């Protein structure tokens, strides 16, 4: 590299929400130089995650990750966010890891570096030419995080900045259990009062004695909040949470959601399965009762459930009931079960707490590039769907 001017690496913006794009640029390289762009993150469990791409500087001695091709690495081609979505545990890590943010009050710290040549291993043992630290946040400035322990309901409410009132969301995660806050924090950053609901602890699904009205009560906690528009409250579910979302929309006589988003769920569940049989009484025969807009997001390589076939069955029943116009379906080839916010690394299989005494490796499915594309595309369409059905006028996203 040049002996007179040191290479310079910049990331803009260096502080942003996790679903925002950034630009990574390296300058002051000799023209035609092979270099490797590398990202490194140490998660809250102290595991290291990395991604990298191989580039060649242009005639001006510059590499732009947004504009230039990666010729190899964990991603190839012109991929502006490849340094995030293609992250994987560093070689030698434990099997079945999954990257999930627990403390949403702190950022994901990602160190981005440039190395001489096309490097494939041993990044931490080499000195980079230049580095830059970037912050990726789920929670924008001014978003309030409020613990909820009310009427037997457990969860965390995220309120956007300002006095409101805001449209509301009940955010229901899946069969892994526990309290998962990061999607609600991000929804709060987009202008929604979002309640991340906890309804059983990890490994306790079969022993849960929750009743159907637990979810109705949680919905009403959001609806009745003084900073929430009571007639603009929706439900957002993933996996088992998507099943519960459909069930609430179809069966509840107490709550009336304004819209529903169901990611990787279905309208069928085996009797005698999880939680309580009473949760899943003949929902497959009553989807026609749904009278609010519903968006279902499904993948053809979902290795958990036949979600695509389920949505086709739903469409037939809603057509027969005369409410097919309320259903929006998104299909993604080669994506897997865990469709999350954009640039979340893809996990084809991870450890899963089956019960308190047993952990298994669960296959989710998907291929990294198409799965990542599905996450980015579906998130944009989900936000547009929520804005259309919960906001009377366009909203401005919170800025870091």
TrEMBL record:
GO molecular function, one term: fatty acyl-CoA hydrolase activity
Record GO biological process: acyl-CoA metabolic process; fatty acid metabolic process
Pfam families cross-referenced by the UniProt entry: BAAT_C, Bile_Hydr_Trans
InterPro entries with a match to the protein in the record: AB_hydrolase_fold, Acyl-CoA_thioEstase_long-chain, BAAT_C, Thio_Ohase/aa_AcTrfase, Thio_Ohase/BAAT_N
Catalytic residues as annotated in Swiss-Prot or TrEMBL: 239 (charge relay system), 302 (charge relay system), 337 (charge relay system)
Domain Acyl-CoA thioester hydrolase/bile acid-CoA amino acid N-acetyltransferase: 19-150
Residues of the BAAT/Acyl-CoA thioester hydrolase C-terminal domain: 211-271, 284-391
PANTHER family, per the entry: ACYL-COA THIOESTERASE 17-RELATED, ACYL-COENZYME A THIOESTERASE-RELATED
Similarity comment: Belongs to the C/M/P thioester hydrolase family.
Protein name (record): Acyl-CoA thioesterase 16
Originating species: Sander lucioperca (Pike-perch)
């Amino acid at each position: 590299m040049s002996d007179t001017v040191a290479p310079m690496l910049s990331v803009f913006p260096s502080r942003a929400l996790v679903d925002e794009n950034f630009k990574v640029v390296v300058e002051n390289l000799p023209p035609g130089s092979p270099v490797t762009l590398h990202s490194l993150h140490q998660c809250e469990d102290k595991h290291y995650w990395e991604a990298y791409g191989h580039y060649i500087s242009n005639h001006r001695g510059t590499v732009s990750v947004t504009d230039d091709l990666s010729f190899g690495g964990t991603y190839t081609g012109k991929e502006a966010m490849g340094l995030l979505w293609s992250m994987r545990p560093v070689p030698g890590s434990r099997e079945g890891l999954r990257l999930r943010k627990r403390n949403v009050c702190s950022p994901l710290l990602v160190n981005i570096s440039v190395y001489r040549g096309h490097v494939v291993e041993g990044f931490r043992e080499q000195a980079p030419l230049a580095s830059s630290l970037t912050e990726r946040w789920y929670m924008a400035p001014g978003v309030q995080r409020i613990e909820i322990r009310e009427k037997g309901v457990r969860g965390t409410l995220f309120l956007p900045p300002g006095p409101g009132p805001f449209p509301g969301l009940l955010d229901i995660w899946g069969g892994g259990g526990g309290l998962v806050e990061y999607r609600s924090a991000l929804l709060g950053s987009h202008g929604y009062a979002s309640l991340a609901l906890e309804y059983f602890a990890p490994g306790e699904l079969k022993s849960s004695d929750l009743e159907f009205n637990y979810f109705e009560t949680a919905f009403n906690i959001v609806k009745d909040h003084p900073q929430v528009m009571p007639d603009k409250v929706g439900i957002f579910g993933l996996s088992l949470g998507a099943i519960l979302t459909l069930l609430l929309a179809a069966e509840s006589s107490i709550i009336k959601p304004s819209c529903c988003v169901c990611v990787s769920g279905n309208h069928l569940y085996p009797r005698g399965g999880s939680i309580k049989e009473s949760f899943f009484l003949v929902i497959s025969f009553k989807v026609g009762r749904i009278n609010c807009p519903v968006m279902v997001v499904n993948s053809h390589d979902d290795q958990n459930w036949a979600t695509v076939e389920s949505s086709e069955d739903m469409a037939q029943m809603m057509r027969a009931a005369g409410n097919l116009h309320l259903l929006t379906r998104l299909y993604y080839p080669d994506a897997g079960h865990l469709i999350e916010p954009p640039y979340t690394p893809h996990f084809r299989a991870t450890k899963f707490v089956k019960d308190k005494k047993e952990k298994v490796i669960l296959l989710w499915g998907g291929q990294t590039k198409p799965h990542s594309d599905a996450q980015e595309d579906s998130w944009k369409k989900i936000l547009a769907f929520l804005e259309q059905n919960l906001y009377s006028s366009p909203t401005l996203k919170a800025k870091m």
